């Protein structure tokens, strides 16, 4: 695989799954992330992409916080802004430009727009939300950017057809798509969807790690450190 992309679906609090995925990939096939042509995402997936593009250690940040202490009144947007201001390096916009692709929805016509060039750290932080009130969350138009390209590795916390995701069959042998994200119709996915805006469970991070490891093992034994991605 050459000139590959990695795309993270928007998923609210379920993005804790991506902490596990990213920790696994950084430990066992770091080149898969470091050498990816593009790291893309919508909403919380874009935040994950920004952290990866700027090479912030996921394990370090995850160990700082007890996610189980969060509750429904928790101000996620304020937490995200504070986190990005604190952890992103001053040259974050230089590290991210050309590699990080953020999915946005244009207010005037509802069309999807991909932002990939950033003039400052502040612009990079703001672009995952709104730009001068002209754009809203990209999950409303394309929740999994570049997913239709064959060289894109897709990641989602919902069981479906994404490359890295929980592996479960559809309960009714049906699949639904939410702005390009494949979601099987089954009981576990219904529980996952219901938890998008609720505090995450620690097991979600562990699930992400396991699913990423399974992907590596099934695709060329990428779980070994001497992979083609290194």
From TrEMBL:
Q: Where is this motif: GXSXG?
A: 41-45
Q: Which PANTHER family match?
A: 1-ACYLGLYCEROL-3-PHOSPHATE O-ACYLTRANSFERASE PNPLA3, CALCIUM-INDEPENDENT PHOSPHOLIPASE A2 IPLA2 -RELATED
- Active site located where? 43, 137
| Name by which UniProt lists this protein | PNPLA domain-containing protein
Q: Where are the transmembrane segments?
A: 6-26
At the top level of its lineage, which domain of life is listed? Answer: Eukaryota
Gene3D superfamilies, alphabetically?
Cytosolic phospholipase A2 catalytic domain (3.40.1090.10)
Q: Which UniProt keywords apply?
A: Hydrolase, Lipid degradation, Lipid metabolism, Membrane, Transmembrane, Transmembrane helix
Gene Ontology, cellular component aspect: cytoplasm; lipid droplet; membrane
Q: Which organism is it from?
A: Denticeps clupeoides (denticle herring)
Q: Which GO terms describe its molecular function?
A: triacylglycerol lipase activity
Q: Which residues form the PNPLA domain?
A: 6-150
Q: Motif span (DGA/G)?
A: 137-139
What biological process terms from GO does the record include?
A: lipid homeostasis; triglyceride catabolic process
InterPro entries for this protein: Acyl_Trfase/lysoPLipase, PLPL, PNPLA_dom
């Amino acid at each position: 695989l050459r000139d590959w992309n990695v795309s993270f679906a928007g998923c609210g609090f379920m993005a804790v799954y991506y902490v596990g995925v990213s920790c696994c990939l950084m430990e066992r096939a770091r080149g898969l992330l470091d050498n990816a042509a593009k790291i893309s995402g919508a909403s919380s997936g874009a935040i994950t992409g920004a952290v990866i593009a700027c090479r912030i250690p996921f394990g370090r940040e995850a160990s700082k916080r007890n996610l189980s202490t969060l509750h429904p009144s928790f101000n996620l947007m304020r937490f995200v802004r504070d986190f990005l201001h604190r952890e992103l390096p001053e040259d974050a916009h230089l590290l991210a430009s050309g590699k990080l692709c953020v999915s946005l929805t244009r207010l005037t016509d509802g069309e999807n727009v991909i932002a990939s060039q950033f003039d400052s750290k502040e612009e990079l932080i703001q672009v995952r939300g709104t730009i001068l009130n002209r754009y809203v969350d990209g999950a409303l138009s394309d929740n999994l950017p570049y997913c239709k390209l064959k060289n894109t590795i897709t990641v989602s916390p919902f069981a479906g057809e994404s490359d890295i995701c929980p592996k479960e069959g559809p309960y009714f042998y049906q699949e639904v798509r939410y702005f390009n994200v494949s979601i099987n119709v089954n009981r576990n996915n219904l529980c996952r969807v219901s938890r998008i805006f609720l505090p995450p469970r620690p097991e979600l991070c562990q699930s992400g790690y396991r699913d990423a490891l399974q992907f590596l093992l099934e695709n060329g034994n990428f779980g070994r450190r001497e992979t083609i991605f290194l």
